Batch of 2 targets.
Target 1
Amino acid sequence: MTRIGERAPDFALPALGGGTFRLSENKGRPVVLYFYPKDHTPGCTAEAKAFRDRYETFTAAGAEIVGVSSDSIESHQRFAALRLRRLQLNVLESLWSAKLSHLDCMH
């Protein structure tokens, strides 16, 4: 299990805007990595909006905000368009068991 303050193992996942997000490409830059279980749910929408509304504060500190969910990229696109408006976060599609099981984040 990765603990607070420890370096997370590298991973690569499909990203909302196309392409792939690789943690290693952000080396030396703070990354706020948050996990949420499902697009379009009230709690997950509130969490994503809270990050969106404070986006400038995080980027002013040099941080990248990255949301990870097991939903598909297509679901993330609908979620961003319908619920979040002006989403500037990286939202990644995840196959929990194959890609992120070593982070011990969703059990």
Target 2
Amino acid sequence: MKMLFLDESGDHSLDKIDQSYPMFVLGGVIAERSYVRTVVVPRLRQTKEYFFGRDDIILHTADIIRARNGFEALRGCLESPHLANRTVMRRLIAR
């Protein structure tokens, strides 16, 4: 059995188009359910636990960018994309 994961970005409204972000994107991934269960879910949980100290956090771009809802520890390093990248790379290399 396969699983489909979809995500969107932007505004789907055609009535009022936001000129600063005039697009809508829909992306998806199809994967075998067994692969999701045995590989993707455990690795995602490990990654969340490693970076955030818990695995129940929801990875939502708006929360990450605004350093809220569990991403408060990122405040400061998100002001500089290069600093954020170095922080993540240090964590990954240290493993």
